[in-house]
Amino acid sequence: MATDKSYYTILxxxxxxxxxxxxxxxxxxxxxxxxxxxxxxxEYNPTEEQTALKNIVWEGKVGNVKTDESMTNCLILxxxxxASAGGFVVREIGYLDTEGNLLAISKYRSAxxxxxxxxxxxxxxxxxxxxxxxxxxxxLKIDPTIIFAxxxxxxxxxxxxxxxxxxxxxxxxxxxxxxxxxIDTENEKQNIKIxxxxxxxxxxxxxxxxxxxxxxxxxxxxxxxTVTHSLLTQRIVVNIIDxxxxxxxxxxxxxxxxxxxxxxxxVKVELNVYVINGNAETHFINATxxxxxxxxxxxxxxxxx
Length: 305
What we know:
- It comes from Clostridioides difficile (Peptoclostridium difficile).
- The protein folds into 2 domains: 9-148, no CATH class; 194-304, no CATH class.
- It is rod-shaped, with a radius of gyration of 45 Å.
- It is built from 2 helices and 21 strands.
- The termini are far apart.
- By secondary structure, it is α+β, with helices and mostly antiparallel strands.
- A hairpin with a 5-residue loop joins β13 (216-217) and β14.
């Protein structure tokens, strides 16, 4: 029977019988189809005895069938009328099962669904809520191809996005801090100035400069110069750098004795020769030059000579 509300939804006699019978036989009623009607041109009050709408203008699939979170005996049916459908007024809505039986019918406030020719193409969402005696007898379903988003859904999503962005930013900053800490730690280990390498309380590093005048011609149409440091009895050549360009220089050298090495070059150029003393435990040393002579952090692996 109709209620005193202006717009409402009722179960038809067939719908009530189907739900009651489903409880007895252990089956479920499935709301699968939605029909829209124009009421024959006017609004009217649907009755439980109806088996069909007065005038069907569109039909399609029911999108979602679910229960209300706060009232578990309330059934919610949601459907989306696509933008391509239109040119009619909606005044009545019917819900049918797989056999085509009209299970529920709604009196709907008159609403015009525009068509493409009207210049206003919109999707129309239809949401119907009604009370049933036992929702366990209803087949609940969600159509994954249809998405319904309420204002609260959008607000929750917006809040979730903001929270995720904040968490991501914090995680990035934490990762950056941890990485910088690791880099700083490694730099502390490796950024050792040549002049600060000390063993046994004595300076064991030395920088020798070869000037233009230090070069003498050799027998191979090149030039040679001798680097000597009396304190170093066991030497390691760290690097040879052009004093002007500050670039590494590929040169030949050979050991003359415990205190001297001979540097060879094809041209006369001012060079800085970085040498460092080794000991019985340290035969190969990694050192980072960090001073005005190089103007940048450069790590070298020494060669024992």
